[in-house]
Design brief:
The protein is of the alpha+beta class. The protein has three domains: 54 residues, Structural Genomics Hypothetical 15.5 Kd Protein In mrcA-pckA Intergenic Region, Chain A (Roll); 86 residues, Pseudouridine synthase I, catalytic domain, N-terminal subdomain (Alpha-Beta Plaits, 2-Layer Sandwich); 79 residues, Pseudouridine synthase (2-Layer Sandwich). It has six helices and 17 strands. A hairpin with a 7-residue loop joins strand 8 and strand 9. The model has no long low-confidence stretch (mean pLDDT 90).
Length: 244
C-alpha cells in the first residue's frame, strides 16, 4: 500500500473517522511496532508496520462495504450500547466486516442512514464543507402556512446559531393543525429539524429522512438494508470528490 498517514490507515480499517482517529492518537491509544504514537502526521505502511489501536492489531480492509439502512424509530445511532438499548449494531451482528454509521438519526426518527467500513467516505460525508443535502418528511402538529415556510427558508436563530432550510414543500394538510411537510437541509447539527420546527411554535410528530445526498429511501421497508448500486456510488463519490 505504501506510506499512508496514520489517521487514514485507522479510518480505512473501519475503526473511526479521520478526525476521531487523530484523537485516538493524541490520547495515546495507537502504537506502531510497539511504540506509542502521540503526534499527528506520521506516515506508515500498514502491510509492513504492526499498527494497533487499544492493543489490537488493525485488519486492513481490502474491500469496501457501502450499505443504506432504513432505521426504525426506537433505535439509537450507535453500533453498540452498554445500556443494552436497541442500536444499529443489532441489525448487523452477523457481518464480519466492521461497520460504522455515517451521521446520526435521533432515537425517535427513522429513515436513511449509511453504514460503511470506508473511513474516508464517512469523514467527507459528515464534514460540513461538503454540505450533503438531506431531505426529511415531517409530520407536524400545529398550524403551518406560507409565512412559517418562508421563515424556515430565511433562517431561524437557534441557541447554537442561525439555521435554515434549503427547500420546504407542503405535502398536505390533514387538518388545520396537522400537516405533512418535506424539508431539505444541508447541515447535520443535533436535532436540527426538530429544533427548527419547534422554534415556530409547532411540534414534530414523526420525522423520516428520505434522502441522504444522492441516496434515497425509496420503498425499502423499516429495518431492512441494501447495498448501494453503482449509480448511487458514482453520484456519492462525485459529490464528495473521491476518486473511484
Amino acid at each position: 500500500m505504501g506510506l499512508t498517514r496514520l489517521n487514514k490507515i485507522i479510518a480505512d480499517a473501519g475503526i473511526a473517522s479521520r478526525r476521531a482517529a487523530d484523537q485516538l492518537i493524541l490520547d495515546g491509544r495507537v502504537s506502531v511496532d510497539g511504540e506509542t504514537i502521540v503526534e499527528l502526521g506520521g506516515k506508515y505502511d500498514p502491510e509492513i508496520h504492526d499498527i494497533k489501536v487499544d492493543g489490537e492489531s488493525l485488519r486492513i480492509n481490502k474491500s469496501k462495504t457501502y450499505l443504506v439502512f432504513h432505521k426504525p424509530t426506537g433505535v439509537i445511532s450507535t453500533m453498540s450500547d452498554p445500556e443494552g438499548r436497541a442500536n444499529l449494531g443489532d441489525f448487523f451482528a452477523d457481518r464480519k466486516d466492521r461497520l460504522y454509521h455515517v451521521g446520526r438519526l435521533d432515537k425517535d426518527s427513522e429513515g436513511v442512514i449509511l453504514l460503511t467500513n470506508d473511513g474516508e467516505l464517512a469523514h467527507r460525508a459528515t464534514h460540513p464543507s461538503y454540505g450533503l443535502e438531506k431531505k426529511y418528511l415531517v409530520e407536524i402538529e400545529g398550524e403551518f402556512n406560507k409565512a412559517l415556510s418562508d421563515q424556515l427558508l430565511q433562517g431561524v436563530k437557534l441557541e447554537d446559531g442561525l439555521a435554515r432550510a434549503l427547500k420546504v414543500v407542503h405535502i398536505r394538510a390533514v387538518t388545520k393543525n396537522h400537516h405533512w411537510v418535506e424539508i431539505t437541509i444541508h447541515e447535520g447539527r443535533y436535532h436540527i429539524i426538530r429544533r427548527l420546527i419547534e422554534s415556530l411554535g409547532t411540534k414534530v410528530l414523526r420525522l423520516i429522512r428520505l434522502e441522504f445526498g444522492p441516496i434515497a429511501l425509496g420503498d425499502m421497508k423499516v429495518g431492512r438494508h441494501r447495498v448501494l448500486n453503482s449509480q448511487e456510488m458514482t453520484n456519492l463519490f462525485n459529490l464528495l470528490s473521491i476518486k473511484q
